[in-house]
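It is time I had a proper look at our fold encoding. Can you supply me with one protein entry, sequence and fold together? It will help me judge whether the discrete encoding reads sensibly. Leave the record below and I will have a look:
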Amino acid sequence: MSQTPGETTERTTERTATASHTPPDAERLRRWRMVLGADSADSTGRTLTGQDAAMDGALDALYGGGAGKKPNGRGTGGRSAGLGASAPSVARWLGDIRTYFPSSVVQVMQRDAIDRLGLSALLLEPEMLEAVEPDVHLVGTLLSLNKAMPETTKETARAVVRKVVEDLERRLESRTRAALTGALDRSARISRPRHRDIDWDRTIRANLKNYLTLPAPDPATTAGDTGATGAAPTGTVVPERLIGYGRSSRSAKKDIVLCIDQSGSMAASVVHASVFGAVLASMRTLSTRLVVFDTAVVDLTDQLDDPVDVLFGTQLGGGTDINRALAYCQSRITRPADTVVVLISDLYEGGIRDEMLKRVAAMKASGVQFVTLLALSDEGAPAYDHEHAAALGALGAPAFACTPDLFPDVMAAAIEKRPLPIPDKEYQP
């Protein structure tokens, strides 16, 4: 029986709940039986019962071999496993895996079911959507089906997407705000302030190394009517560097442009970028623009108050024209020295490569901070165009994959014009 890389991990890590009082040898056989699956289990001599049998059946329906399965799940070789294209059987299977496995494993199994068994069309049914465990990858699948989705399903789909978005916002918002607020405050400080603008607390702390001890006064000159014969030595801080408060302003301190590739391979990145876009847009000290592109360019900035609207405004799939998207973003830049452009793309360019690189070089020469992310997701670096990544790196815009947890630090560094915190293992131009 052929097994996927994820199958052994799932089978070996999630089936110990009922074995706490099983003798060691029997438990070892039980685990091997779970790992091998029904087709290869005869050598173990182990028969599964109860919850173990139900869990094994749920796994075998998805990962079991048998090219002879019929659409209803009945195989020609006497096997009864399989999901086929039956909505009721899939709905029951979704309920089973949510009963027997933790949420993280359920999400992996759902993803595998969509990929291996072609169940995308069933997600167009409201009953199916209500049964699934929402996650980023499911959102990506729903967005790819957006145009084909019947009206009766769209509200349910939006509810699924909103649940994932709200979970991401709870996880990411506070850290993003903290990191960027600090970066904006530091970038706003001035080094040659007028007297009334000096931040004395920070100035004193920054100059403590310049503390000088002054000699004690001459007792003959300090003794007065009180009879004092001397005074303790005193000291002073020499302020070599003054730190001033940034001037308050109602205008945004920095302009952020998120330019997102919406080709099919970037689904998880689109979801995370949309959530981050909404968080950034809610910060009054930032002016945030969100642009998505394939061969066309769509500006979704006016929808940033609701990331769900942003996501349903995208259309995953299609070609890629990075040059065209960057041309649009470049035309919207009015304050280059205060602008950060974040390109999120696998860099497979369908447009004019040389023009794309010239635009990046021109933006950087004008003072724009340019960040290239191959992905914004927890999965690490995807397949990407190494030649384009190397060319961007040569321009001073290294391309690397970024996790959502690292993104606030990347943005803070870009705002402060510091070196970006590039994960070494993922930077492989």
